[in-house]
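Ticket #4471: structure export looks truncated?
Reporter: QA, pipeline team
Priority: medium

Steps to reproduce: submit the single chain below to the structure queue and open the exported record.
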Amino acid sequence: MRKEFKIGLAGIVALLVLFFGINYLKGISMFKPESYYNVEFENINGLSLSSPVFANGYQIGIVRDISYNYNNPGHVVVGIEVEESMKIPEGSRAELVTEMLGTVKMNMKLNHEATTFVQPGDTIPGVANNGIMGVAEEELLPQINKMLPKLDSILSSVNALLGDPALKQTLHNAEQLTASLNATSKDLHSLISKDIPQLTSNVNVITENLKGISENLKGVDYASTFVKIDSTLQNVRMITDKLNRKDNSLGLLLNDESFYNNLNAIANNAASLLKDLQEHPKRYVHFSLFGKKEK
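Actual output as written to the record:
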């Protein structure tokens, strides 16, 4: 009998350990007094049993039961257990929040202005807050579904464009243009490294020469030079005035036609005399020991 008793006792202990262990893993405290409330939702967004219940970020309980309200179709009743010391004010509500990983948690939005409290076993209204994932599912997915035919058309156009021989020719031309640009870049590099320094040196020489000329110009007595130029211009003006008058030979030559004609006649006579002298020199000069002057 002792052996069977020990086996039975060990089995009972094992069952108790299993029971308390499962409840502990579920977050259920068997030794802490708790209050039970019902929360009614139209959509629980995948809320599961043993999900935590929070208030102001602190876990106050867990979800113990989920059932469909057949007396009020379209609603789901969620039973929660919270700490007995947690008093839920009237006007509070429960909110379901869908997190990034798809898990759903319940937040109690407490009405701290109320002075009366909900009694255990009463029903608390609940709302669903879809969160980022819910908004993405409700708003983004329909938009994406609408965009899929357009994306398919765009991809078809892209495939047609990629298969167009003109694109290959354009890429080939771009490659040639790149090669030309590389050659031009090399030429510019050669120009900058060789010709530009020489040109800069020549510019420096010219600059130095201009600087020397400028220094020389600084030493010029411009006042004296302009006085001499003015004097020269006055002399030219006097000569011009004399040439315009008839009281001198050059003036008569330039202004008196008769004087010019006389000079011209004298020049013609002198030319005729010289010609006759060349043709008949014996008429003007005769020197002979035995002879007579030619008449």
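Status: closed, not a bug. The export was complete when the record was re-opened. Leaving a note from the reviewer for reference: The radius of gyration is 64 Å.
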